[in-house]
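Trying the structure run again after the queue cleared.
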Amino acid sequence: MTANKSRKPIVAGNWKMNKTVADAVVLADAIKRSLAGCKDVDIVLCPPFTALKAVSDVISGTHIDLGAQNMHWEKSGAFTGEISAEMLREVYCHYVILGHSERRAYFGESDEIVNKKTKAALESNLTPIVCVGETLAEREGGKTNDVVGTQVRGSLAGLSARQLVDTVIAYEPVWAIGTGKTASPEQAQEVHAYIRGVLKDMADAAVAQSVRIQYGGSVKASNAKELFSLPDIDGGLIGGASLEARSFIDIVQAAL
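Done. Tokens:
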């Protein structure tokens, strides 16, 4: 077990725009064979929308959960190309990634939009994984805490204490996503501790200590154990390394 004894680690694989349905089934099945009975880490697979149902069928009856990579805040309507929380629940999604840096950068998602999606997810009994993180220019400019704090407060505005506890936060420094660069364990822990301080200001110390905060940004089997052992890091949101069964399995096992 990691140092975070009061919070169950959570490791989620964000497959992004990768894997056909057939490929997704093969990957999910390989992960299932090694991790189906794992109870000490919450494991989440987040395939593309097209593969949600197929992956759901593969992991049915296991301790592995299904997650989506995005959703709209409305329940239905004239929103071409969008997916609602109800649609995700129908294929047994339990989690949804919201506010990923790629959504913020390429699709113009603001903290206000992420906040609307987060509230809609919680109202539909989906656990939101809310992503926050700074760019390289912002880090080099000494603005990490300002940027991350603003994103946390804006994305989670108006949530009750219970809703905050039911939310997962993923700290993903934008400069470390898909670049091979990883925040040092010290850098990652520092920002995670800062986020916990922001949560304390938003609610109270008990809530702050209950919320799970993942690290994301070029997490690999080789660095996962050191990252996950830190007091405020409760697992990872894994991108590239989740696309290969062995590396993802090794990362999950590093959280035990």
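The two ends are 4 Å apart (CA to CA). Worth checking whether this holds up in the mutant runs.
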